[in-house]
Amino acid sequence: MKRIVALIFLLIFIPKINAQEYFPNNEGVQNRNNNYTAFINAKIFVTPTQIIEKGTLLIQNGKVIAAGNSVNIPKNTITVNLEGKSIYPSFIDMYTSFGMDKPKKTEGNRQSQSYDTKREGYYWNEHIRSEVNAYDNFNYDQPKAEELLKAGFGVVGTHLQDGIARGTGSLIALNNIDKTNRLLTAKISNHFGFTRSVTSNQAYPSSLMGMMALLRQVNHDLKWYKNGNSENKDLSLAALSENEKLIQIFATEDKLNSLRASKIAKEFGLNYIMKGIGNEFERIEEIKKTNAQFIIPINFPEAYDVSDPNQANQMELTDLRFWNQAPTNLKVLTDNGVVFALTTDKLKKIEDFRTNLLSAIKYGFDKTKALEALTTVPALLLGKSNEIGSLKNGNYANFIITSGEIFNEETRIYENWVQGSKYVVNDIDIKDIRGEYDLTIAGKKYKWKITGEIATLKSEVNTADSKKLSSKLSISNNWISNVLKSTDSTQTTFTRLIGYIEDIKTLSGKAILFNGNEVKWSANKTAPFVKPIDSLKVQKNNTIMPTTFPNVAFGNAKQLTAETLLFKNATVWTNEKEGILEETDVLVKNGKISAIGKNISDASATIVDAKGKHLTSGIIDEHSHIAISNGVNEGGHNSSAEVTIQDVVNSEDINIYRELAGGVTTSQLLHGSANPIGGQSAIVKWKWGQAADEMLYKNQPKFIKFALGENVKQSNWGNINPTRFPQTRMGVEQVFTDYFQRAKEYDLAWKNYNSKKGKANAPRVDLDLQTVAEILNKERFISCHSYIQSEILMLMNVAEKFNFRVNTFTHILEGYKVADKMKEHGVGASTFSDWWAYKFEVNDAIPYNGPIMHNAGLVVAYNSDDAEMSRRLNQEAAKAVKYGDISEEEAWKFVTLNPAKLLHIDDKVGSIKVGKDADIVLWNNNPLSIYAKVEKTIIEGVVYYDTQKDEQQRVAIAQERNELIGQLLQEKNKGANTQEPKRKEKKEYHCDSVELE
C-alpha cells in the first residue's frame, strides 16, 4: 500500500521539478528565466577552506555554473557588484520538524492504558512507527521558512518527532518562490528516539530500559522478517527493511543515552548519527570512543536570576555549572575529533541560533569548524555533498550574501539565495548615514546626530542654542524621512524632511514647514559614527569551571587510579575463619588484598595509620534501586524478562557517592515489582567517576527480578480497574507456569534448529522467552520480591516442577514461618531488619525474622531497597544483634559476606582474604556502632571516598557556588535574559515506582 502511495506521490510531484514548461500557469505570464547571474568582486567561500578573494560566482537555473577569479561571463548576464561583501554557502539543518503538525496527544493516564495494540497489519507495538513518512504529512510553513532564511539556512531535513521508531525524514529546500523544486529528497533519513509516541496509550514500554529492549527485539524481528519467516505482512517491519540504506538518525537527547544508543548500534552492526543535547563534553572520552557522528543543538541555558539568596540556595551545583560550561561543548567536541553538524532544534527562537553560536566561538570554537558544521558536514552526513553545502560547480545555488565575515558580530546577512531564488533579509543597497552632521533648513542651523543600527536608526537634533527637538527618522530604499517637533509641549508644530541618499557625506532634500511652505535642507557630515562601548558588555569571558568526573558536586578532578596502601595496626574483620584480628596490618596492591599479618612492610606503599580503627570488607547491598535512569519498572507486560538494568545504570547519581560514604562498595540494582516476571539485574561496584560500563561487575552472574504480592496484581494502582493480567494471586502462579512452559518449548525449538542447521527456518528470537529459558537451564538466578508465606511456597513448588531452584527471596518478611521449607529448597533470604506494618501484606512481619532464618541454616542478608537506608546498612546489621542475639561477627556478615554468597560473587568480595578484590572500608569505630563513621572506602585499590578529601570538597563546592552566582549576577547586570531558579526534585525509585503516569 505504501509503495502505491509513494508512486502516486512521485507521479504527481516529480514532474513539476523538471517540467514546469508544460504545466498550466494561471497566476501570471509564463516566461522561464534562463539568464545567467554573475556576482562579481566578492569574497567567495566555495567551501569553508576554499576561499576566493575578489571572485565571481556565476549561476543559472538554480545551479552554480562556476566560481573563481577568471570566470567567463556570458553575454546578457545580469551582473551584481559585491565589492566588500562575502558569499557563503547557505546553512543546512538536518534535524527539524519543519512543516510537520505536532502529533496530538492521546488522552488518558496510567489507569486507561492499553496493553495490546489496536492496529492491524503493523508491528505489535504502537511506538514503533517506522511506516510513517515525513512527505505524507508535510505542509510548507512559509513563516517558519522566513525565520530560517533570515538565520542563513537554505535546506532542512524534517521528520515527525514522535515515537521510538519514527519513520523517514525528507530533505526540503527553503525556496519561497518556486514551490515545485522544494522537495530535494522524499526519503533521506530514518529516525529513532528514546520517547514513546504521544498518539498511543499502549503501556509498553514505560521505561528507558524497556525502550532499549524493544529496539533490540525490533532488530531481531526485522532479520527474521527479511528472511521470509513471517506468515503475515507487517508494514512497520517492511518499512524498516526498505529504509535500511537511508542514513539512520537517533535522537538520544543526552550524553549517557548516546552511549546507550551506540551500544545497540554495535550489537546489530548499525551506524546511528546521534542527535545530542549539548552536554557531550561531560563524558567526552566515552563519546569519542563511540566513533559516532553527531547533530548538536546550541540551546544554551539562560542565566539564572539569583538575586534572591533564598532562591539561589535552591539551585543544584550541577545546573549552575552547566550554565557556565555549556558554551564550551562545541570546542571540546572539535578538540577531540568528533564530527558533528549543528541544529536549531530546542531553540525557543531561531534568532538565538546566531547569538549562541557567536558565544561558542567566543569560548574557543573554531570559526572554520563552525562553518563546516553548518555546510559541508551536514551535506556529507546526508550524502548530498554533490548538491548542497558548498558552491562547487553543479551544486544548487544556495548561498548567502553578507556584509563581511559571517561570524563577526557586526556582520549583516543581506540576501539568502535558495536554488537561485533570492530572499532579501536586509537591503543590500542601504547606505550607512550614521555620523554627526551640520543641518541647515531654510538657512537655520542645527546639529544632527544619527546613531543606532543601520536598519534601525536613531536621530538626535539640537538647535544652535542646544535645545533638543523631537526627531523621528526612517529610511526605505535609500529615501530618508525625518519628522522634527519641538519638545515644548505647548507647541504642536512639525517640520518634515525628505530626501534621497546619493552621497553619505552630504545629505539634502526638501523640507515641509509647519505652515506648509516647502524649503530646501542640507546636511554636511562633520564626524563619522563611532559605536559607543557598553562597559557592561565589554567584559572578558566568564571563567569556565573545570569538568569533574562525574561533572556534579563531589566529582573527582581527575580519574582516580589504584594505589598501594598499607594499613597498620587495624582491627580487621576478616569474615573468614581467622575472625576478627587485633593490631593487624593489611597490604593492598594491584587492586587486590596482597598480605594480612603483623609487621608487614612495602617500600612502595602509602602507610595508613589504622590503630584504634576497624577495617572491614565493603558493604554489599543485595537489593537497591539507586542510580537507575528513567524507570525502575517495566510494567507494560506481565513479563519483562527482556529488559535489563545494565542498560540504564546512571553513573552520575549523587547517591553513589553517599553509598561510598556509608561504606557500600557493591550493590545489586534490581528491577521493580510491577509485574510477576521483571527485568534482569545489574551487579555494580560503585566506582565513582567511572563510566557506567566500568561500574558493572566483571563477568557477573546473571540475575532476574521476580515478584509476588500486591504490586504485581495491581492492587495499589488506583481505583480505576486495571486490565492487565494477572489480577489475583492465583493468576500470578499461572503466569509463572505459562512462561516457564513456553520458555521450555522455545528453548527446545532452538536446540532442535541448532542441531539441524541449514535444514529448517530459524525460530523467531524472543528476548523475553530467551531470558526465562536461561533460568530453566540454570544460567540465570531469581531474586524474588516476596512477603506472604503461601506465595513463597507456591513459587518454590513451581520452580521444583520445572527442575530449578529459586536463588533468593528478597524482603521475605514471612520467611520465619517457612524457614524449614526454604532450607529444604535451597533458597537464600535477603530481608529487612525491622520493617513491618507499612502495608497490609506485611502485617505479620517481625524484627526477629532475619535471626530466625539464620538459625534455621539459611544464608541471610539485610538489604536496603532505599537510597537513604543503604547509607547506614552497618546499623541495620547491628539490629540482628539486638533482636536475635546474633554475634557481632555473624551480624556483620549479613551486609557483607552473606549478600556476596547470595550473588555468587563471594570468591572475589565479601571478606578480607589474600587474593580477593581490595574492596575494603576503614571505620573510626566498631562498624556496628551508631557512632561509627567511614574514613576511607576503597574498591580494587582505588580510594573512592576519603573523609578528609570530602571536607576539602565541601569548601571547594561552596567557593565554586559563590563564583558562579557572582557570574550570574553580572550577567543580569549586563541585561542578559534570565530564568527563574528552579529546584529539581530528585526522583528516588522504590519497588513500586512506575515512570509512566
What's the oligomerization state?
single chain
N- to C-terminal separation?
36 Å
Q: Can you tell me the residue ranges where pLDDT is under 50 for at least 5 consecutive residues?
A: 1-20
Q: What's the total number of strands?
A: 43
Mean pLDDT: 92
Shape: elongated
- Summing up helix and strand content along with how strands pair, one would put the structural category as alpha/beta
User: In percent terms, what proportion of residues is strand?
Assistant: 25-35%
Instruction: Return Rg in Å.
Output: 36 Å
Main sheet characteristics: 8 strands, mixed
Number of helices: 23
Relative helix content: 10-25%
What does this structure look like?
There is one protein chain. This protein is of the alpha/beta class and 997 residues long. The chain is built from 23 helices and 43 strands. Strands 1, 2, 3, 4, 5, 15, 16 and 17 form an eight-stranded mixed β-sheet that branches. An eight-stranded mixed β-sheet has the order 6-7-8-9-10-11-12-14. Strand 10 (247-251), helix 5 and strand 11 form a beta-alpha-beta unit. Helix 15 packs across helix 16. The two termini are 36 Å apart. 46% of the residues are buried. Residues 1-20 have low confidence and may be disordered.
